[in-house]
Amino acid sequence: MTLNHDYGTPAEGTTDWHVPLNENFASIDADVEVRDTEDALSQYAPNEGAKFFAVDTGRRYLGNGTDWVDIPSHSPSETTLPRETEDPADAPVGALWYRTDVDEVRARLDSGVVTLAGGPAPKTNDAKTHVTFDGDAWRSAFTGIKDDHNDTVSAPSQSGRALRVQLYEGERTGANMHFRFADNWSRRPDTVHARYWLYLGENWGLGTHDKPWDVNGGKLPGFADLTHGSAHGGGSVDDSWSTRGSFRPPKSGGDTRLGWYSYLPGKDGGYGSSDDWNENGEIRFGQWYRIDQYVEVNDVGSSNGVLRAWVDGKLAYEDTSVRFRTMDSVAVGEWWLDVFMGGGWTPGNDMALYIDDVQLWENQQL
Q1: What is the pLDDT of residues 98-112, one digit of tens each?
Q2: Domain spanning 120-361, CATH class
Q3: Whole-prediction pTM value?
């Protein structure tokens, strides 16, 4: 006998070998599925156990010895998620929804909103640098880590652990961490695309000592080249520049409006200038957002530098006429993970934000 179908295999010397052979043909006629167009079904005998597949309609039939019996098809059960273009503020813990604008499935947990699946894929998955916060490798990627302000936690997190940056009441600086390209890439490039996930805690920005928070704001991660100068804190921009992210008052119903805070050649006054992003840069506390930033320094003598930003894959800022440098020795020196309150004001309460999954490329990804 054969192992799978019990077909007879006559032993050597068998005289009536035709008997098991004919039995095998009868079994094969039932075991092997007949494939033809559905209008040819009547041309085939509905032997007990015989199978027929209609190649033009996809329907299947099973013979019962007298007739062909239609076998109902069973489609997998479907679960339809609510389709949203923004995270519902009143979603209960455990709720799921599909964000059509960023192609992501999200859920509300006790710790806040998290992304479970999806999201537009980058043009290449081969980031030149990919920093996670699951182990200790991130400590060797950045300089300027403040252990009493910068640690990792398991929640809220996109996956694994996330970097927690704490701002304490009365203090301005939560993080002053530098990913320097000369140290990590052996050179300073002219173009960089940075991607990271940002979560502002529910207690973020509730007030300051001397002014309401919504008058002021502060700094977030961005780009700089401080190799030859100090384009921050009122410093010189003749031989350096910086364009950090910022958080400022909301304009269209969110909790804060993201933007840039820049020190660039030709700036007026002693400090930097603020440029709010568009409505796509309006975000809420207690939710994860994917932030993409792209910088391309200008040709010396021209104002053709590029600065772009996206939130959850949607363009939030674009300027293609930026002058970052006046000399060839200036490039993109670092991705500056800066978290700072002020100006001259400080938080009125302890607060925290979270950063996860930092990726850096040398070419634009969106």
Answers
A1: 887 677 788 887 767
A2: mainly beta
A3: 0.66
